[in-house]
Amino acid sequence: MTIKTNVPALEIELKDLANLFGQHNEIEIDHQESKNTTILHDKFVVENNGQEKVFEFSYQLDPNLSDLEQKSLRKKMLKNHLYQMLNKELKMSLPWGSLTGIRPTKLVRDMIEKGQIKEYLAAEALEKMFFVSEPKAKLVANILKNQKCIIRNDNLIDIYVNIPICPTRCVYCSFISHKLSALGDEKVEKYLDCLEKELAAVKQIIADKAYIVRTIYVGGGTPSVLSESQLERLLKMLTFSVDEFTVECGRADTITEEKLDILKKFGVTRLSINPQTFCQATLKRIGRPVSTAQVLKAYSMALEKGFVVNMDMIAGLPQEKFATFKKSLATLLELYPHNITIHTLSLKRAADLKWQSESLSDKDVEKMVDYSYKVLSENGYKPYYLYRQKNQLKGLENVGYFRDEHVCIFNIDSMEETNTIIGIGAGAMSKRVFNIERRIERQHNHKFIEDYCQNIDKIIEEKKNFYK
Fold first, then answer.
1. 3-class secondary-structure state, position 26
2. Residues 249, 335: one domain?
3. pLDDT tens digits along 334-361
4. Which pTM was predicted?
5. Peptide bond into 221 cis (omega under 30)
6. What is residue 287's DSSP assignment?
7. Which residues are within 8 A (CB) of 328 and not within 5 positions of it... i.e. 6 or more apart?
8. 182: domain CATH number?
């Protein structure tokens, strides 16, 4: 199927939506965009099996709306028209309707705060305005109710430190991450030198702006791959007094009792230990050489030392059937971690998995995701944040769950974009949130460790200017 439209500015978003209906859809632009300044005329031409159909529609611009609001409205209407057209032509619906964005909850929250909809009508609005399925619409409404920790304050910030280093690379991973063995100790130490330099500049920015640090999150990569001395060196730099301090320790084979003691010593409160699955055959298939025994040992040690623990699972891993996923989830529930995150596999271009010859079946993935919501809810877990990524199987989502009030504030702040985040390290992104003006500015550090280290002085100057 080929779809032609006259709106080049929205080509990528329209392609994203079309691809959710099947990877063989193509968008072509005829570059004859409407020149009328008061009434817009848009059209789609659909070519399917040698037959061509034309879908035309017009709508009048609202003079009371800003250019940005007009663009947003047009985007919504175009995507809705395309969704309805594909839904009719292919006799297929999508769980998230015409939505392609990363943050469905933020979209709805913004609509509520602007007075466009009432909070109690959030689910109904998603169904009517974007054709979102009833279960997904209710999921969003449920998450909004559980996000009680949101504080909009331009002086309140979060700190994110990136350690893009892993012991090995999992085949599904699309993050820019370096193998520890390929870097070597000398380059790791140089990277820590540069982190220390950037952090010193950030501390001055925080003092100058009178910022208050709300949370710290050290992610990656796998930060726990650092040696005990390197980990201690890193944590000594993070001298902010916070109640929530998360460090990702995703690979259980990188966790030792000595490292946990160091984490505890420097005020870390929360860890992420990620089994992804408890099926050993799958772990081998995805290039993740970690045993269930290692996960259980690491988790047990973390609990003994009083950490809040998150554990991840991935729905849709290669050749995993629903029964295998169900068994892994049962094991996870027996462990009863404070947080559980259910990810849907995303086939990113940068991931090795994208190019493997084995076929990937998404037949059971929707069943896995729906089952996890049902079973986790029955066992006392509540959803508290959600995001979507491009190329996720069936266009599904990632959902974080909590029990006993153990939400991760950083995850909510990050996904809802309600607070400024200062990103430190290679590949880190800073987001400056201006709540009164309702706008966000972003700044990206260099992606690769070598580039980051070579350009550290320039990065620091750019960061200082960014936060003036």
1. strand
2. yes
3. 999 999 999 999 886 655 655 444 445 5
4. 0.93
5. yes
6. T
7. 275, 277, 278, 279, 313
8. 3.80.30.20
